[in-house]
């Protein structure tokens, strides 16, 4: 359900972007009135001045973002699923999101205050293997390789505040605070025999796969606070190409608080479990921001 909600929201943002493009585009068949060279030069000068002045105007944007998450942790199980193997270590994976952005000028200082709010989906796939002796229809045992995979997906509302400093008329850098409120966290878990051949199967399932389960994670920290550093490049200027403006935005979010804290305890069917290492999620994002107002 959460994935469908994120998909619908991103569709709405794409539609808004399309409407913004069409509203700023020049109607077909429209012809500019003839002007002499002096008028043309004056207009060009005014255009440059307008473009520069709009740097300090309040801007509202729609942002579509791709992200690469760094999941830093070490665990054998997470609440509520059972321990399946020797344990999992850190991994990384791609995610996606969409946001609304607001940029405000701070007087004559040249600094800008940026605010963002949106949604983000950050999945992760943890994989590990073990080797065990089994009998594969032979008198002698053979070494079998078992692969254990746990897939997690973190879906949440994101928001942030940052100060931006212009390095040039097109390039801005900034830093600020960031946060994510987790709306849902899901998992799937699976055990598979990868070697020897598929002729080796589990008697319980009559297949090379067993322990195929899924559900919702529990006992995680719903709110994660972090810091961010960003760079923004204005690709298209205001009043050009028929749109308000278009930016490329790169941002790194460093989490200060973990999704799971070390020392967390919970009870499963085998008794009490304790998480020894924290689970922290940092991510790098790259997006397109379409200024619509």
Give your account of this protein's structure.
It is a single chain. Strand 9 (265-268) and strand 10 form a beta hairpin. Helices cover 14% and strands 55% of the residues. It is built from two helices and eleven strands. It has a domain at 2-23 and 57-122 and 155-185 and 228-291: Porin. The strands form two sheets. The protein has an eight-stranded antiparallel beta barrel with strand order 1-2-3-4-5-7-8-11. Strands 9-10 form a two-stranded antiparallel ribbon. The model is unreliable at 12-54 (pLDDT under 50). The protein starts with a helix and ends with a strand. With 293 residues, the chain is mainly β.
SSE layout and pairing:
Blueprint: H1 2-24, H2 37-53, E1 59-75, E2 88-105, E3 112-134, E4 142-166, E5 171-195, E6 209-216, E7 223-236, E8 245-255, E9 265-268, E10 271-274, E11 280-291
Descriptive labels:
293 residues; mainly beta; Porin; two-stranded antiparallel ribbon; 2 helices; 11 strands; elongated
Q: List how many beta strands DSSP finds.
A: 11
Q: Kindly name the structural category.
A: mainly beta
As a percent range, the share of strand residues is over 45%
Oligomer: single chain
Q: Which regions are unreliable across 5 or more consecutive residues at pLDDT < 50? A: 12-54
Helix count, DSSP H or I runs of 4 or more residues:
2
Summarize the structure.
Helix content is 14%, strand content 55%. With 293 residues, the chain is mainly β.
């Amino acid at each position: 359900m959460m994935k469908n909600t994120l998909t619908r929201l991103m569709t709405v943002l794409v539609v808004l972007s399309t409407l913004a493009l069409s509203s700023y585009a020049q109607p077909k068949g429209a012809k500019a009135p003839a002007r002499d060279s002096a008028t043309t030069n004056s207009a060009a000068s005014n255009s440059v001045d307008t473009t520069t002045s709009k740097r300090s105007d309040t801007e509202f944007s729609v942002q579509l973002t791709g992200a690469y998450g760094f999941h830093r942790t070490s665990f054998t199980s997470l609440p509520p699923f059972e321990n399946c193997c020797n344990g999992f270590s850190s991994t990384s994976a791609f995610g996606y999101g969409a946001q609304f952005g607001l940029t405000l000028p701070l007087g004559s200082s040249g600094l800008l205050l940026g605010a963002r709010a949106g949604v983000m989906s950050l999945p992760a796939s943890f994989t590990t293997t073990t080797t065990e002796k089994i009998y594969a229809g032979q008198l002698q045992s053979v070494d079998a390789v078992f692969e254990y995979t746990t897939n997690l997906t973190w879906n949440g509302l994101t928001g942030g505040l940052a100060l931006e400093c212009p390095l040039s008329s097109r390039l801005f850098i900034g830093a600020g605070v960031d946060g994510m409120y987790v709306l849902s966290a899901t998992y799937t878990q699976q055990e598979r025999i990868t070697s020897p051949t598929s002729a080796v199967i589990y008697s319980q399932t009559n297949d090379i796969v067993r322990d195929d389960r899924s559900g919702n994670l529990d006992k995680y920290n719903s709110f994660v606070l972090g810091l961010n550093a960003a760079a923004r490049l204005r690709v298209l200027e205001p009043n050009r190409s028929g749109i308000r403006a278009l930016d490329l935005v790169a941002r790194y979010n460093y989490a200060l608080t973990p999704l799971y804290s070390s020392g967390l305890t919970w009870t499963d069917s085998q008794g009490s479990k304790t998480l020894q290492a924290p689970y922290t999620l940092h991510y790098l994002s790259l997006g397109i921001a379409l200024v619509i107002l």
